[in-house]
Amino acid sequence: MIFxxxxxxxxxxxxxxxxxxxxxxxxxSKHKMAHPDQIFIEALVTNDTVMVxxxxxxxxxxxxxxxxxxxxxxxxxxxxxxxxxxxxxxxAAAGNFELTCPxxxxxxxxxxxxxxxxxxxxxxxxxxxxxxxGYTNANVAAAQSDDVxxxxxxxxxxxxxxxxxxxxxxxxxxxxxxxxxxxxxxEKLGFSYAYVRKKKSECMGKLTELVRNSAxxxxxxxx
Amino acid sequence: MNTYEQIEAYxxxxxxxxxxxxxxxxxxxxxxxxxxxxxxxxxxxxxxxxSIITAGEADLRKTLAETISEQKASKTGTAKLVPVKxxxxxxxxxxxxxxxxxxxxxxILFNQAIDPQNLYSxxxxxxxxxxxxxxxxxxxDSILRIVSxxxxxxxxxxxxxxxxxxxxxNNGDTKYRMARAFALMExxxxxxxxxxxxxxxxxxxxxxxxxxxxxxxxxxKQEDVKGCSDILKTIPRDAATYSKAQQLLSDIxx
Lengths: 223, 254
Prior knowledge:
The structure holds two protein chains of two kinds.
Chain A: E1 3-8, E2 14-19, H1 21-30, H2 38-46, H3 49-68, H4 74-93, H5 103-121, H6 138-164, H7 167-178, H8 182-189, H9 193-212, H10 217-221
Antiparallel strand pairs in A: 1-2
Chain B: H1 3-11, H2 17-29, H3 31-74, H4 86-109, H5 116-123, H6 138-152, H7 156-169, H8 174-186, H9 190-197, H10 200-203, H11 208-221, H12 225-233, H13 242-251
Helix pairs in contact in B: 1-3, 2-3, 6-7, 7-8, 8-9, 8-11, 9-11, 11-12
C-alpha cells in the first residue's frame, strides 16, 4: 500500500497520510470475495468425496433432462457430466480460477460445451440445441466456461506439439520436469549442468516455436 | 545468452534484480519477445503441473465413477404389472404376511437385540483429508499436514488439538470443522461434537445434510436409538445421505 503524505495547513501543519487513491480501488478489488460457490471449485481440486457426491446429486437431474432433450441418452449425460467436471478440475488445479457466478450455471455451460464437442466428433448431424432458460448471469457463466474451454485447448496444443518434438527433446524435458533440480538431471544424464541447461532451453524454445507457428496459436493466445 | 536461455533464466529466478527489470522492460518494448515469453512460460507451467494434475484427474474420475454407480444401485426398478390368477394371489399374500410377521417378531423370537455400538462402527465412515497447498501460508500448511496425518491414521486424540488451532484462525472452514466433529465423536467427546455439528457455519453450508447424518450417528453411539431414529427421519429424500439413513433406519428397526 502506498501512502501519500501532505502537510495540511488547516490542521496546523501536521503531516497527514492517506492511501494513494488508485490503490484504494486496487485494494478493494483484491478483497472482493469470490462467489460463495467457489467452495465447489475447491471441492473438485481436493477431490472432496462428500462435495463431489453432492455436486452430482444436485445437478445431474437438470443436465440429464437437457441432454435427453438434445439428442442424447442417460449414459451420454453421465459422460458429459464427468468430462465437464474433469475439465473444470484441470483448469482450477492449474491455479487462479475464481468463480464469479453460481456454480450451477457455470456447470451447465461447461456440460453444454462438452455435448457440442461430442456431437461434432460423432456422426450425429443436424441436432439443434436448445438453451436452458432460468439461469441468471448467463453471460458470466458463458465467459467462465469459455475460460475452461480455452485452457483445455491450450493443454491439447502443448500435448500435440510435444509429440511433434524429437525423441531426444521429449525425453530430456520429461526428465527435467520430473527431477527436483537441474543438478540432479545433469548427474543422471552424465552431462555438465551448463550443457543440460542449454539443451533444455533449446527444447523448450523448439516447443514454443511449434506452438507459435500453429494454426491454433492466434485464436488461443492473441486477444 | 539467446532468447530462450534468457527466458529460462528469468523463469528459474536466476537473474539479478537489475537483469530482471531490464528483461521485463525489453518484453514491453518487443512484442515478439513478449509473445515468446507468454508461450514458453505457459509451456513451463503445463509441464510442471501435468503429472500432479493428471494424477488428481484419475482420483476425481474414480470418485465420480463410485458416485454414479451408487446412484444406479439405489434406484428402484419399475415393477412390471402381470395379471395373476386369484388363488395364486391369495396364497402369495398369505405367505408374504407370514414372512412379515416373522420378521417383526424375529427380535423377540431370537432374542436379537440391536447393538448400537456395532451398528455405529459399521456406519461411521469418513473421508481421508487431503492437504491443499495452494495459497496457504507455510504455517497453515504444516498445521494441516499434522491434522491430516493424524486424522487419516485415526489418531483422533492427536488430530483434535491441531484442528482446534487451525479452526481458531479459520472459523468458517466447514470441511475441517466436520472433520473435528467426527474426531470428537470417535473419542467420546459428545457435547463438543454436537456443538460443531450445530455450528451456524455448517448449517449454512453444503455439509448440512452430512452433519445431520453425523448427529444421528452421535446419538446411536450414545445408545439413544430412539433419538437417532428421530433425526434419521428428518433427512429429506433429495439429500445425498438419504439412502444410508434409510438403511440405518431399517437396521435399527425404526
